[in-house]
Amino acid sequence: IMFDTSESINIKGITSVPGSETIGKKEFYKYFDKQDVDKIQSVTGIESLRVVKEDQCVSDLMLIAGKKLIQSLNWKPEEIKVLVVVTQSYDYQLPATSCLLQEKLNLGNDCACLDINLGCSGYVYGIWLISKLLNINNKFGLLLVGDTSSKMVCPYDRATAMLFGDAGTATALEFDPKSNKKYFSLYTDGKGSKNLIIPSSGYRIPVTDKTLKREKVNGGFKPALTDLYMDGTEIFKFTLAQAIPSVKELIREYDIDVSRIDYFVFHQANMFLIEHIIKKLKLDSSKVLTTIKYFGNTSSASIPLTMTEHFSKNRLKHESSFLLSGFGVGYSWGNIFMNIKEDTYFETLP
Q1: For a tag site, which of 4, 99, 126, 137 has the least CB within 10 Å?
Q2: Contact 2/185 with Cβ under 8 angstroms?
Q3: pLDDT tens per residue, range 44-74
């Protein structure tokens, strides 16, 4: 267990850009039986997905989100001294996607840039890292988080095809000595890595004609080794055994009054799981924000996208407390308890 605190950092704004193309469940009738599609939809709570066009990368969405956020906050790009990109959908094996976005966002050459290869827990880890990197001499930081998971799945795989959407997000953070503390808990268990993985995606199992092949079996197709593999049962068991208790551990470690938390935002894995978390933690469901119905599982972008969807029109009426929790691929999971001020900028771009 890693518990940590951070002071003097405020979130100034969040923008989100989901994929521009909408896929409804009827689109999947050509791949699966209608009965199977309807059953999966009823369990996951996903009625549609937002995905990118074939020629788009997540960095394109991040660029739009970042530019709009910088403009909306009246920041000068050259004042941003830290840029962190969290994605598993990088443009290239090298160079780092953060380097590409530094140039496109017109940030200065004195901006420290780095990539983090994390998925579902990525937003929590990204906030924690930037909170450590910013100080009085590096006042402004930008966190870009997102994935194009739809590019990773096999369209014939029931376990993944109807779950994943795409989005890119930008979060602006500023050094502020008057800010309230943020409380973190961060965890890793690599023994679960085999349960959510693209086996042939690096140098351990190089991409070949064989690993690209989707085999025909039992009237359907077996995903290629270059497709995302997910053992949903094991992921669910992990969430019950480790992710949910970790929220309790954060609350206990810092003596947080749960009844006074204004909003809970969990990684949008599926609605069945979120409802289970609400039940296990005995939460007021009206405080638990969700967006999975219209966007699907957007990996690392799911937490900030959920926040912008809820607060882009109905702004915070007062400084509010949030508990954010991300969990999944790695296994990697983490939580934040923090306050967000009422003047924080939120926007989901079309």
Answers
A1: 137
A2: yes
A3: 999 999 999 999 999 999 999 999 999 999 9
**Nearest CA to 84 among 60, 109, 106, 62?**
62
Give the pLDDT mean for 259-284. 96
- Angle formed by the axes of helices 97-104 and 58-72, nearest 10°: 40
Residue 122 vs residues 156, 207, 313: alpha-carbon distances, Å: 27, 26, 26
Cα(207)–Cα(57) distance, integer angstroms: 20
**Two structure tokens written together for 2:** 């890693």
Mean pLDDT, to the nearest integer, of 197-225?
A: 91
Q: pLDDT digits over 230-255, tens only?
A: 999 999 999 999 999 999 999 999 99
Condensed to tens digits (0 to 9), the pLDDT of residues 294-310 reads: 999 999 999 999 999 99
Residue 81: exposure state from Cβ atoms within 10 A (0-12, 13-18, ≥19): buried
Residue 76 exposed, middle or buried by CB count within 10 Å (0-12, 13-18, 19+): exposed
CA distances from 218 to 215, 221, 222, 223 (A): 10, 8, 9, 13
* pLDDT, position 219: 65
